[in-house]
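F.,

This is the one I mentioned.
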């Protein structure tokens, strides 16, 4: 699990440099109102001759805390070999009306249904005399390390993930929906980062949270510098011979959630989403056929813009002023992916499979030599 004391293994704290200025926490919760919660399930099943293991979880994201106040949103699929529910209505309406849940591929259904039950339990739509909604749940496949066909995520786990969401520091690495994921041939997980930018006389924050489960080691890059070719024979994944799925290079998925307090309309948030692949490509992701690359962006500006009656008004930035937000998106996505790798720990999982964490010290030396100097250790 991620180190809780200062999250000292975030890439910047380990001596790496990235462009742009971060918020105080360097996470999606730097955007005021955003809350994140995790439920992490790690257990070796008793009396299992096949050495089955649970290595999975759920991550929840609330745009405006625990209240019904829909936000403008957009989404984009770079490659659709994955699932993100509720996006049809986001396209039609321009609003995200629910929290977002991230989980494993086989648990999308239980997460969606449990979220609806949680709404009823919490009287989420108390101001609406009649309402229905479409929960947003996204997934990546964690079936190498996790007994994914055991369907171990239950309704009460979903309730727990939703109830645990809070502002403040975000736990990263082998937590929540990132518990059993793999990235660039190493242990992946949950990662987060943020950027603070100024447009004319206004200051805005953009934050991202990623669930990394994608990529091929030979394409691995950081800050545009080759990492993967130096690590091709280092800490290779161990796949069980007992019918565990072997992970082929390029298989997997990445889910990216963008939050910002900049006033943006749904079509502008779609444009933000379309810049996310540029951040992924800086790490070496290429949107391969076997990857589900699904992205969602929302704006916490324009509170109470959602209305069922009358005429609503909304502030928004001119399109000519969006470039700094595009840059912030690309930068934050790259750094969040690196954070997901640096904060993840080596994990042994289902049927003896083992995925190693990235060799941080070796990566620092590679980057230092490529830059012509040694990166200072911290």
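My design for it:
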């Amino acid at each position: 699990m991620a180190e809780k004391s200062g999250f000292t293994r975030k890439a910047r704290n380990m001596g790496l440099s990235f462009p742009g200025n971060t918020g105080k926490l360097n996470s999606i919760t730097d955007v005021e109102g955003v809350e994140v919660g995790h439920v992490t399930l790690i257990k070796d099943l008793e009396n299992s001759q096949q050495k089955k293991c649970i290595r999975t979880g759920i991550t929840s994201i609330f745009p405006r805390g625990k209240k019904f106040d829909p936000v403008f949103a957009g989404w984009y699929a770079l490659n659709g070999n994955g699932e993100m529910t509720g996006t049809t209505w986001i396209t039609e309406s321009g609003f995200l009306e629910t929290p977002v849940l991230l989980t494993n591929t086989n648990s999308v259904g239980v997460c969606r249904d449990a979220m609806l039950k949680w709404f009823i339990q919490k009287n989420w739509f108390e101001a609406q005399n009649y309402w229905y909604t479409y929960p947003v749940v996204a997934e990546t496949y964690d079936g190498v390390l996790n007994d994914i066909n055991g369907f171990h995520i239950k309704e009460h786990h979903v309730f727990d993930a939703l109830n645990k969401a809070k502002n403040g520091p975000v736990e990263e690495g082998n937590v929540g929906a990132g518990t059993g994921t793999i990235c660039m041939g190493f242990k992946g997980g949950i990662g987060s980062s943020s950027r603070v930018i100024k447009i004319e006389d206004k200051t805005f924050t953009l934050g991202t949270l990623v669930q990394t489960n994608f990529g091929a080691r030979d394409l691995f890059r950081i800050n545009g510098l080759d990492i993967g070719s130096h690590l091709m024979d280092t800490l290779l994944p161990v796949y069980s011979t007992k019918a565990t799925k072997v992970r082929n290079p390029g298989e997997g998925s990445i889910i990216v959630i963008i939050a910002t307090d900049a006033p943006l309309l749904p079509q502008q948030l779609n444009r933000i989403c379309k810049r996310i692949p540029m951040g992924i490509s800086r790490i070496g992701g290429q949107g391969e056929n076997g990857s589900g690359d699904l992205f969602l962006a929302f704006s916490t500006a324009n509170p109470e813009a959602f209305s069922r009656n009358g005429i609503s008004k909304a502030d928004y930035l001119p399109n000519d002023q969006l470039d700094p937000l595009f840059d912030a998106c690309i930068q934050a996505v790259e750094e969040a992916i690196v954070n997901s790798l640096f904060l993840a720990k080596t994990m042994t999982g289902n049927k003896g499979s083992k995925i190693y964490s990235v060799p941080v010290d070796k990566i620092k030396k590679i980057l230092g030599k490529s830059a012509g100097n040694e990166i200072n250790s911290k």
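The longest strand covers residues 202-213.

Talk soon.
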